[in-house]
Design brief:
By secondary structure, the protein is of the alpha/beta class. It is about 45% helix and about 15% strand.
């Protein structure tokens, strides 16, 4: 089953990882965002995601929450601030900056990321929570 996810990272991770996450892990990027990207980086993002993918420049919490409520992703790869917003809506989140997990650099790092994605999406805690009634 293909899992939908939102990818929000500062700098080039947003366009470096989009192709391997889709092609190697079978994830479906529904939105990608960056906080510190230049115009050429956004061009690279656009070139590396499928048509219809939402591309955002430094979304605030309200914009991210609207994206979550509208698209209902299975996972969010982002920073520390976005992680707790995702949890609020019952969505697993991985801090992509590797402060808590990882490291996510190189081949071994990609394997670490794949393992963390699998473990987060399949964690039994999400089935115990009743987020629909809120």
């Amino acid at each position: 089953m293909v899992k939908k996810f939102i990818f929000f990272s500062g700098g080039p991770k947003s366009w470096h990882l989009s192709i391997p996450l889709e092609k190697e892990l079978g994830l479906d990027i529904i939105a990608v965002a960056s906080q510190f990207e230049h115009l050429d980086g956004y061009d690279k993002m656009k070139a590396r995601v499928k048509d219809g993918t939402t591309i955002l420049d430094d979304p605030n919490s309200l914009e991210l929450e609207e994206l979550i409520l509208t698209n209902k992703p299975d996972l969010i790869l982002a920073g520390i601030k976005e992680k707790y917003l995702a949890y609020k809506h019952g969505i697993p989140a991985i801090q992509i900056h590797s402060y808590e997990n990882g490291p996510y650099i190189g081949y071994e790092g990609f394997l670490n990321l794949a393992k963390d994605i699998y473990n987060n999406i399949n964690a039994p805690v999400w089935k115990l929570m009743d987020f629909e009634s809120e």
